[in-house]
Structure formats: C-alpha cells, structure tokens
Amino acid sequence: MLHAHLTTLHVVSLILELFAERPDAAEALLAGSGIQAGDLDGDDLRITRTQELQVCANALALRSDLGLELGRRLHVSSYGLLGYAALSSATLGDAWRLMLQYPALLGTYFRLDLNVEGELAWVSAAGYRHAPALEQFNVEMCQASLKLICDELLGQPLPLVAAQFRHGRPTYVERYSASFPCPLQFDATRNAFAFPAEWLQRRLPLADPVTHQDMLARCRKQNAEFTTRQAWLQRVREELTSQLAAPPGLEQLAQQMHCSPRTLRRRLRELGTHYQELLDELRFERAKALLAQEDWPICRIAEALGFSESASFRHAFQRWSGVAPSRFRA
After folding, report:
1. Helices and strands (H and E) in the chain: how many
2. Please, what sign has the CA dihedral across residues 269, 274, 277, 279?
3. How far apart are the C-alpha atoms of 24 and 60, rounded to whole Å?
4. What pTM, to 2 d.p., does this model score?
5. Interior CA angle at 162 toward 159 and 166, to 5°?
C-alpha cells in the first residue's frame, strides 16, 4: 500500500488556528518549515512530511497535549472526497474498508488496520518511521481523529471497550477521556482501540448508494493523480540519495529526470518543496544515521555527504537540527 510522502496544509492550518490568539504565533509556528503564511491561501498546495513535522514540533513545544487536541478537530470532512465517500457508505465496516484502501488520501503516518478478535474489533496504528520525538504526538492525533470519524459516521458515539498505547502514561492523561472514554493501557504492545465488532454492521445514517458511487469514482481519480505526483518526487529523492557524496546541481538533476531545469523547478514548487530543501532533507537523514555509528568520524561523514570541509557540515547540521553533530551524537 502507498502511504503519503506529501500531504495537504490542513494540519498546519489547524495548528495556526489553535494558536491564533497568540501574538506573532504564525511566524514562530512556521519557523524552519519553508511554509509562508500566504501559502495557506493556495489552491491544492502539497507540502512534504518534513515541513508538516517541523510545524508540529514548533507547536508541540507550546502545548504537550497538542496531538489529542488536533485529533478532536480532524473531522471526517477533513479528509476531503474520501471522507464524504465514507459518510455515504452503507455500514461502518464498509466505510472502514474504503478508508483502508486509500492510505495516501488519508495522509496517515501509520499503517492502519482493522482486525476482529473474538467479539471485539480493533483499530490499530503501526509502522511509524518518522521523527521519533513526534511519535507519541502523532499516535494521539491519529487515534483521536479515527475515533471522531467513527462517531461522525455513525451519528452517535462509538462505545469503546479499551484503548492501548505504546508510550508511557502522560502527565495530561485526564485529557484522554474526551476521545477514549474507556479503560486505558499505556506501555502496551500496540496503539489501538477496541469496540464491539457488531457495530461494524451498523447502517450509517447518511448512506446513499448513488452519492457513494460518485465519490468512489472521484477518489480513484484523485488517488491516481496523487500517487503519480508522489512517485515522481520519490524518483527525484532516489536520484539525489544515490549521489549524496557528489550531489548533482539542479541542471544536472533535470537532465537525469529528462526534463528542463525550469520544469523541474516548477514541479517541485507545485509539490511544496525545492531542490535545496530536498537535498538538505536527505543529507540530514543520512547524517543522523551515520552519527549513530560511532566508528564514523565527523570528517568522514562530511565527505560522504558531499561537503568539502568538516566545518561546512557542522554549520549545516547545526542549522538542520539546532545542535552540533557532536552534541547530537552524545
């Protein structure tokens, strides 16, 4: 299954809305993301996961329960055509099977599953592979939003039997009850919540077969367009990744992608990124992996990433992470 490497500005917009009353909030929240306030008015602008996570990290520093709060604001309508296709499905089970069919349109950071175990149905989120410091935040946002979606699909609260989380018990645990009014288990083996499996057969109040077929056709088209854009960006990333020791310039990269430099710039801009940002992102990912290997000296890491001097690498890493390479390694 394809999972989104690109996403919309929806979560970023919600974060800015949540902190709107704070003076100069937008500038602080967007810092380091490459997103401009004017981008929020753009038409179908896509941003990278790195950009979204940077804004989330900035906001999380201001509010520790941010994930739960955002999850309670991510309504079924937040998921666009896919959300409306789910609303018009015949049953809750049909809606879930539909959503799981299009993970790229869900924009999730996780591999989502729905499994029936005895008399219980478990909705789980696994396979997180992004910024480790933001995993708990993303789990809370994802699971709270999925519970809200179930409530809105049914037109009434879905009765939960249990909720499990891999992270430890947070200091704001009392905030969990708004989304998960059931026994909670932390330091569990999975991130999941359970409800009586019989609810999967419940007919949805807004079920409409005609509307549903129309929404399905639109979802297929949108998914095809989205996945094509993702596949192209992935090709660009692969070209750069294979040449980090001597990265090509934009013109050379354009030749490798069989397009003009102008076309490359335009397509990257449409995807919410640009050449230097992609190169920095890939270098940063590789740098963190190499710094985890203590037998790699800083000078050798700098060389592997295409820096002519160790000092240039140190300055770049400080800009990417906020700390020096040696501090990050320690």
Report:
1. 15, 7
2. positive
3. 16
4. 0.74
5. 140
Question: What does the block give as tokens for 270?
Answer: 């449409």
- Return the SS3 of 195: strand
Given this model, what pLDDT does residue 3 score? 39
User: Is residue 185 within a helix (H) or strand (E), and if so which, with residue range?
Assistant: strand 184-185
* Band of residue 1 on the pLDDT scale cut at 50, 70, 90: very low
CATH architecture of 246-329: Orthogonal Bundle (1.10)
Q: Is 121 helix (H, G, I), strand (E, B) or coil?
A: strand
Q: What is the pLDDT of residues 92-130, one digit of tens each?
A: 999 999 999 988 888 888 999 999 999 999 999 999 888
Determine the Cα angle at 158 with ends 180 and 1, to 5°: 85
Write b or e for each residue in 228-263: b if 16 or more Cβ atoms lie within 10 A of its Cβ, otherwise e. ebbeebeebbebbeebbeebeeeeebbeebeeebee
Domain with CATH 1.10.10.60 in the chain: 246-329
Q: What are phi and psi of 71, to 5 degrees?
A: -60, -35
Residue pair 277/35 in contact by the 8 Å Cβ criterion: no
Q: Where are the beta strands (DSSP E) in 75-173?
A: 111-117, 120-126, 162-164
